[in-house]
Amino acid sequence: MTRSLEDRIAIVTGAAKGMGREICLALAREGAHLVLAAREVAPLQALAREIEPLGRRALAEPTDVTDEAAVRTLVERTLATFGGRIDILVNGAGVTGPIETPVWEITGDDWDHVLAVNLRGTFLPTKHVLPTMIAQRDGKIVNISGTSGLRGYKYRAAYSASKWALRGFTRTVALEVGPYNVNVNAVHPGIVAGDRMDRLCREKARARGSSPERVHDEYVQEMALRRVTTARDIANAVLFLASDASKNMTGQSVTVDGGWDV
Asked: What is the pLDDT of residues 178-225, one digit of tens each?
């Protein structure tokens, strides 16, 4: 049976852990070859070793997505390794920034760091893959945004601002590259089970004088489905947007949050 992404070439940033790791495995299972980008080399190499038994090639490429020279190198090495094609880009690199911090207490450096990674770190890979996708007249870009880009998020101003910006970036780029048959969409995860959610609950609990379990339950009670999203849930949404099943969708926001933003 033919897989939906057979022999397509995909770059995934933020690939090493959590959602990024699960996204890479999902793409590989559907036939894609992967270029794995993140700052730490050891987790990338470990993930590459998991992908290769699936019969797919995986290139581990340590990359700081805020560094334009590094991103240019990432794209050049992808093209050199995989015959000059790039079919899919998943912009998954991101940071959470200050938690439970009112805007007047956020430092300028913290604000700049969040915007640099979450926004510049999406802009630069997009900028550098698009000439190839335009020449191919084919490509899929999936930006990992967040539900805090759909509504206000108290005490998370830097993070929320970055995700609102990603939503606008996604729609604008979709308009620019649509005539070249390039789709650009965003996935908006809610709270996703894993290390990042655990840390978020701990830090919120500490700031409130509460417990991580109580914070976790508050999140769950806000969700229509009363269950937390998993990394696999996000990977399934990315897989859909990276495949031909979504060929007539662009500039869209796909929310996967258990019904938090209803």
From this structure: 999 999 999 999 989 888 888 888 988 888 889 989 988 988 899 999
Contact criterion met (CB below 8 Å) for 18 and 231: yes
Question: Where does 65-132 show beta strands of DSSP type E?
Answer: 88-91
How many Cα atoms within 13 Å fall on the side-chain side of residue 160? 14
Domains of the chain: 9-190+230-256 (3.40.50.720), 193-228 (no CATH)
User: Both tokens of residue 225?
Assistant: 């489905």
> Annotated active-site positions, please?
159
CA atoms within 13 A of residue 115's CA, in its CB half-sphere = 12
Where do the DSSP E strands lie in 76-135? 88-91
pLDDT digits (tens, 9 = 90+) for 8-20: 999 999 998 899 9
Pick from 52, 230, 189: nearest CA to 36: 52
How many degrees, rounded to 5, is the angle at CA 161 between CA 159 and CA 167?
Answer: 105
Give the pLDDT score at 191: 87
| pLDDT tens digits, one per residue of 252-262 | 999 999 998 88
Pairing of the two strands 33-38 and 9-13:
parallel
Residue 1 has pLDDT above 70, yes or no: no
Look at residue 169 and give its three-state secondary structure.
helix
